Every structure is written in C-alpha cells, then in structure tokens.
Amino acid sequence: METVHLVTLHGALLDSRSWRPFGEALGTAKGIRRLDVTLPGHSEDPSDISPPTSGEIVEALLPTVSGLGDAPVVLCGHSWGGMVALDFAARHPELVQGLIVIESSWGTATTVWEKIGTAVARGLLRFVSPRTLARWSAADYGRHCDTTRQYVEATVGRRTRHQIVAVMQAVFSFDIRDQLEAITQPTLIVVGQRNRRTHNQAKKLAKNLPQASLVSVSGAGHLPMLDNPQETAKFVTQFLHRHFGVETADARHTPAPEPLD
After folding, report:
1. Which one, of 143, 138, 144, 139, lies nearest residue 218 by Cα?
2. What angle (nearest 5°) sits at the alpha carbon of residue 135, between those of residues 216 and 118?
C-alpha cells in the first residue's frame, strides 16, 4: 500500500478550518497524510497581506511542499486554492503527482460575462465593508447548508479591507489557460451539483487537461467539503485509490464516478 501526502489549500478569504468536516469524513483512511495549509494573506495577523499573483504564492509554498519527502504529493485546492494548485503543478511538475480541484477555475475573466462580473466585483470591493461582504458571501455560499453559512460569515468577517482587496486582486488576475498543456498529472475536478455557475468551465477544464475526470457532489454548492463532506471524501479516496493505490473502505466499494451531466 502506498502513502500519499494530501495537501489542502482553502478558498479565498476562508481558512484551513473549511477542511475539518472533510477530514472527519476521511476518518482514519490508511495511506493518507493530510496537511492543511494556510495560504499567504489568510492568517489572523492583519499585517499578513496576500502577494499579488498566484506565482508568488506558489513560491511561498515551495519549501513546505518540497520538504514533504519521497511519498507522492497530491494538491487538493478549493476555489482560489484550486487555482494555486493548478499553477503549482504547472510550475513544479516534479513535486506534484496528482491534483484535486474543487469548485475552481482556470481564470475569472476569460469570457465577456466573466469580465463583466469581475469588473463589478472589483468596484464593489471599494465600497462594501468586510462585514457586509461576509453576509453576502454567507448568503450565497451557505444557501444549502447552515454550517457553511455560519462558517463563511464568521471567517470572511474577520478579514480587513486591505486583506480582502489584496486576495481578490490576485484572484481576478489569475489566468492559466496557456499553461494547461503542462499539467499532465492525474486530476480530479469536483463541482457542487447546485452551483451551476462553475459547471461550464469545469467541463472545459476537464476537456483541456490530459488526465482529468469530473464529478459532481450531490446537494452541494460552492463548498462541497462543507455541504456534503462524506460524498466529497468518497470521491477523493476513490481517486487516490485508483491512481496511487491508497487502500480505504470507500475506495474498495465505490463505483467509478459518473460524468457531469
């Protein structure tokens, strides 16, 4: 049985606690060593400001990932964390053997409608208070789960305006379309069944990555690992079993994931 390092990267303005229910759902799965990473700009220190690009964040994470040892490394990123994971895999393919990309994107301004949405969001950040943004985010992301709503409002609400603007400017500038061919690692793309806003690009991402599969977590919105941690963990353990030989109870008995409709 092989051991893998599962390195989780949280979403923008959130933190590593977003992985706790998912970690509990994984249970005592043998062969998985999980490391929940706090991305730059997301600590409790108000002077902790995100670098302006994903590339700089990748370099900040490099010592942590390169120091994990000889076991395969699988980066598991949610939303902004998924973008950072994609960039990391493209820049340092020798350090990453697998990717799990949850409710993420290859860029936030790659179509006309995305550009409009990004422009509106940039403008709102200048005027909306952190508390108001926290309430809006919680209402959106927590529509399907009270736990998710409470977590998002509490976490986003702790950010300063400076932290929020820095993180979101990095998100808005992300575009990895021209590097997708360099990402040849086995990749699992995960979407929440109820958050259809991400489905179209997820399908395109799966089509453009040479070793990608796409699954949908039932009843989940933008945070599947909080909305439905059991099914999210089931898909992840199956992926790790299929590509890295990790033995888990779910992996042995779970059928292959169905394509997204």
Report:
1. 144
2. 65
Give pLDDT tens digits for 74-114.
999 999 999 999 999 999 999 999 999 999 999 887 777 77
Between CA 190 and CA 184 the distance in angstroms is: 17
Task: Evaluate whether 52 touches 170 at the Cβ level (below 8 Å).
Answer: yes
| In the block, residue with structure tokens 């860029």 | 107
Contact between 51 and 163 (Cβ < 8 Å) = no
Q: Please write the tens of the pLDDT for every residue from 2-24.
A: 789 999 999 999 999 999 999 99
Residue 130 backbone phi and psi in degrees, to 5: -55, -40
Structure tokens at 220: 């989940």
CA distance 151 to 11: 13
Tokens 């108001």 map to which residue? 132
Answer whether 17's CB lies under 8 Å from 155's CB: yes
3-class DSSP state for residue 204?
Answer: helix
The rounded Cα 191 to chain-centroid distance in angstroms is: 10
Task: CATH number for 4-253: choose from 3.40.50.1820, 3.90.1150.10, 3.30.750.24, 1.10.10.10.
Answer: 3.40.50.1820
